[in-house]
Design brief:
alpha/beta, globular, Rossmann fold, about 20% strand
Length: about 500
């Protein structure tokens, strides 16, 4: 049996000022894709599944990049053409697995996933095609109509992207063996959710309910797409997608409808508490055990922000936290370069951060002691375990007694590796600050005595109602408090 693998992955924040270009992507082509075996990533999970099943892998192209602005049309067309050409040249395949995200927006094309799936289906014909996704997708029935399986990761942090890609491969293999294709249906809720972890609270409760309904229905998969709220496209929202064979179709539809209704009824429970920088620090200082992790959710590169916001760091310095605190990391290649030029042991006076826009804060004028330097090449230890991460030249600066890590390339903080690289043991500090919405929990939740959310001004603020909506279908909760949800989902246009 031969299964083709291909994918384009990006999380598009349409409120970012700069477009995403072809050169912004990193790519794995052909045999290079197989080198991800053993990594806990979507591609690594798909490769491992194929190898475990003993099928022949037909690797085409995997293209991905950091969350950022709308993708230039020429870039997408080039990647799509490469995938389609590759599929047309490899001969017959028995199935195909697409590695997607669900929230990709291209200039003039608000739904990359539907466009790519349609083109792949037209080329490959009536064979099993399934796809794995990030749960932060905004998905459509137009896309689902082209697929025989939709597998969104379940956890946020996304510690299971590899397992869902693995499941997509197994499903394609199963369909090819039994000679029967499954179908997919989408329910869209007129609901925008803030970034909500599934490790605790309402996210964990709702996820457990999803698992039970899926098991009771006996269908292939029920996927809950939280949606991606930082984008202005017609179909933004939250979604439930069912994958089922004909014999469980009615039960799957009933379970998906029940879950969607319960999710809608619990929407108020997803409204988070938002603390500005000083209030978050005050909350952290009330703790009696340590370390306390303070995460700046609103400047999360994993949602498209610049990562050079100064709001939280400014508040920490103003609070005089000194040697009790560390911060890793702020993205500023100019300062990192200056620190590397000066060398360890030097004093440098620099304008730190705040160089991208006005929203994320003004630059901080600081005098810092260069304590340590690093090349920024790391290996992820929790989410995406085993995958490489390159955040460019790094510097550990000591400012008013506080350890501040500066890196050169955009990324959120996933785990302790950026701290450890420059000699910081987070367990020796009272206050550990970082930039991330929830992925950091995979590496820090078991270490932290308490987690405090700082929601300063930024492009990934929990205050999702502040973003202008020119394209998104309305009404939409919470911007429209009187938004309603169809009573009879089985006969609504949302499910068709």
């Amino acid at each position: 049996m031969r299964i083709a693998l291909a994918g384009i992955v990006h999380e598009t924040n349409t409120y970012c000022g700069s477009p995403t270009t072809y050169d912004d992507f990193y790519t794995y082509r052909g045999p290079k894709m197989l080198e991800t075996s053993g990594q806990e990533s979507d591609l690594g999970g798909a490769v491992d599944a194929c190898q475990g099943l003993g099928v022949d892998i037909v690797p085409i192209l995997y293209a991905s990049t950091q969350p950022s602005g709308t993708i230039e049309r020429d870039a997408y067309e080039a990647f799509k053409s490469e995938i389609l050409t590759g599929l047309s040249e490899v001969g017959d395949v028995d199935g195909c697995v697409l590695l997607l995200h669900g929230a990709v927006v291209v200039s003039g094309l608000p739904d990359l996933e539907a466009d790519l799936a349609r083109e792949v289906r037209a080329l490959l014909g009536d064979i099993p095609i399934a796809a794995s996704f990030d749960l932060h997708g905004n998905v459509t029935q137009a896309m689902a109509d082209q697929l025989n399986g939709v597998f969104a990761c379940r956890q946020y942090p996304h510690i299971d992207l590899h397992t869902q890609a693995h499941a997509a491969v197994e499903h394609v293999h199963d369909m090819a063996q039994r000679g029967e294709l499954a179908s997919c249906e989408v329910i869209r809720l007129p609901l925008l959710l803030p970034t909500t972890t599934t490790f605790e609270g309402i996210g964990e409760v709702v996820l457990q309910r999803l698992r039970k309904l899926e098991a009771d229905a006996g269908c292939v998969n029920l996927s809950w797409f939280h949606g991606f709220p930082y984008t202005d496209i017609p179909h933004a929202g939250s979604f439930v997608v069912m994958t089922s064979f004909a014999n469980t179709l009615d039960a799957a539809r009933s379970a998906a409808s029940k879950f969607a209704r319960e999710l809608w009824d619990q929407r108020e429970a997803f409204v988070p508490e938002s603390l500005d920088g000083p209030a978050a620090i005050q909350r952290a200082q009330a703790a009696t055990s340590y370390p306390v992790v303070i995460h700046e959710t609103s400047d999360n590169c994993g949602g498209g922000t610049p990562g050079d916001g100064t709001h939280l760091l400014r508040a920490m310095l103003a609070a005089g936290l000194g040697g009790d605190a560390c911060f890793s990391f702020l993205v500023d290649p100019e300062v990192a370069s200056e620190a590397h030029s000066a060398g360890v042991g030097s004093q440098i006076t620099v304008a730190l951060g705040g160089k991208t826009d006005d929203l994320h804060g003004d630059p901080l004028m600081i005098e810092g002691y260069v304590k340590a330097l690093h090349d920024g090449r790391l290996t992820m230890q929790h989410m995406f375990k085993g995958a490489p991460l390159n955040i460019g030249p790094m510097a550990r600066l000591v400012v008013d007694g506080m350890d501040i890590v500066v890196a050169s390339r955009r990324s959120q903080t996933f785990d302790r590796e950026p701290f450890l690289a420059v000699g910081i043991d987070v367990m020796k500090y009272k206050y550990v600050a970082l930039k991330s919405s929830n992925h950091f929990r995979a590496g820090f939740q078991h270490l932290a005595s308490q987690i405090v959310t700082a929601d300063t001004p930024g492009l990934t603020t929990h205050n999702i109602g502040i973003f202008p909506r020119q394209q998104t279908a309305r009404p939409l909760w919470p911007m429209d408090p009187r938004a309603t949800f169809p009573e009879n989902l089985e006969h609504s246009e949302e499910t068709r």
